Amino acid sequence: MKQVLILCTGNSARSQMAEALINHKRGDSWHAESAGTQPAARVNPYALKALAEIGIETEGSHPKNLSEFIGKPFDVVITVCDDAAENCPVWLGQGKRVHIGFPDPADATGTDEEILAVFRAVRNDIDAQLLGYLDTFSADAELAT
């Protein structure tokens, strides 16, 4: 099984949604972990709700520090920060490094429904782009063997 690490700053929204989506939809071939350089106190409740809406269990999800994964081998490490003002982590360990940025849904304002709509949109983009990349990565690896 291939290993992927998803990195961002707070590990409270984008990277958590990516980890859950990958493990739920590609768990037969990929195992995902996520971490941040400055982990938040908790996973953003809107991220958890956006995942629950599509049947993904998130019990036990919590932000993790990047330091927990130092020395652990990964096939690929994906950073998901979008804004240049964010401190997107740098991975110096094993694994191909890739950046696939997404806007931070935690910056959304408005009513609960408007904020949740932003989280849904980012969730759907993560689903399409990250899972698509991992499918391509898997196919490329098979062709190389």
Written description of the protein model:
- With 145 residues, the chain is an alpha/beta fold.
- The chain has a single domain, classed as Rossmann fold.
- The chain contains 3 helices and 4 strands.
- The protein has a 4-stranded parallel beta sheet with strand order 2-1-3-4, with helices on one face.
- α1 links the parallel β1 and β2.
- The mean pLDDT is 89.
Helix content: 25-40%
Query: Can you say what the CATH homologous superfamily is?
Result: Response regulator
**Alpha carbon gap, first and last residue:** 15 Å
The helix/strand class is alpha/beta
Query: What is the average of the pLDDT values?
Result: 89
Tell me the overall shape. globular
At the fold tier of CATH, the topology name is Rossmann fold
Query: What are the segments in which pLDDT stays under 50 over at least 5 consecutive residues?
Result: none
CATH structural class: Alpha Beta
Whole-number total of structural domains: 1
Strand order of the largest sheet: 2-1-3-4
Query: What is the number of helical segments per DSSP (H or I, 4+ residues)?
Result: 3
CATH architecture: 3-Layer(aba) Sandwich
Strand-and-helix sequence, N→C? EHEHEEH
Spatial extent as radius of gyration: 14 Å
Tell me the major beta sheet: 4 strands, parallel
What percentage of the residues does DSSP assign to strands (E)?
A: 15-25%
* Structure summary, number of beta strands: 4
